[in-house]
Amino acid sequence: MDKHDGRDTAQSRPGDRGGLGDPWHDALASGWGEWEGAGAASPAVPAQAAPAQRSAAGVYLEVQRSAAFQEVRGRYRRFVVPAVAIFFAWYVAYIVAATSAPALMARPVAGAVNVAMVAGLGQFASTFLLTWLYARHARLRRDRPALELRWDTQEMTRGIDDPARMNGSSRSEGGQW
């Protein structure tokens, strides 16, 4: 049995990151996190060379002017503007009726429950309904295109932030995401 003095005895191999002798280094079959020339396979999405004059602000302006971005924003507006208008009108109608027609609001509906209570509970119910409709609309009509835009934007800015980054990887040298 060998005795060790507690020091790291791992040998550095060519291609090791930082010379740590990572025993799982060869398990990275996809090429993510590999340095160039380490025998790594090319990434699924090849890194695009960013022009020298391109900045993150320029990329975001380019994305903002794109047809895909305009479509996502248009879908958002086509839902939100009418929904806000209808909800605001319903809220104002409730307030106006409560202040200008107290006799109407005091009319009993069932037992001690009057029109004002039913309308007030209707405000809560319509709030939850609008929230559900908004989440459903976002999930079905906007989330996927917005995620694709986010991915495209990240791909376009990948070489701007850190030119030393390799193969489009977002892993740091320590292996953390």
Describe the structure.
- The chain is built from four helices and two strands.
- It is mainly alpha-helical and 177 residues long.
- Residues 15-20, 22-47 and 165-177 have low confidence and may be disordered.
- Helix 1 crosses helix 4 (115-161) and helix 2 runs antiparallel to helix 4 (115-161).
- It is elongated, with a radius of gyration of 29 Å.
- 1% of the residues are buried.
- The two termini are 38 Å apart.
- Strand 1 and strand 2 form a beta hairpin.
Class from secondary-structure proportions: mainly alpha
Radius of gyration of CA atoms, rounded to a whole number: 29 Å
How large a portion of the residues is in β-strands, by DSSP E?
under 5%
First CA to last CA: what distance? Answer: 38 Å
The averaged pLDDT comes out at: 74
Uncertain runs? 15-20, 22-47, 165-177
Shape: elongated
Largest sheet: 2 strands, antiparallel
Q: Treating each run of at least 4 consecutive H or I residues as one helix, how many helices?
A: 4
Percent of residues in helices: 40-55%
Strand order of the largest sheet: 1-2
Could you state the order of secondary-structure elements as H and E?
HHHEEH
Q: Let me know the number of strands.
A: 2
Provide a short characterization of the protein structure:
The protein is 54% helix and 3% strand. The chain contains 4 helices and 2 strands, in the order αααββα.
Keywords:
two-stranded antiparallel ribbon; 2 strands; 177 residues; elongated; 4 helices; mainly alpha
Strands, helices and their partners?
Blueprint: H1 56-65, H2 67-100, H3 102-106, E1 108-110, E2 113-114, H4 115-161
Helix pairs in contact: 1-4, 2-4
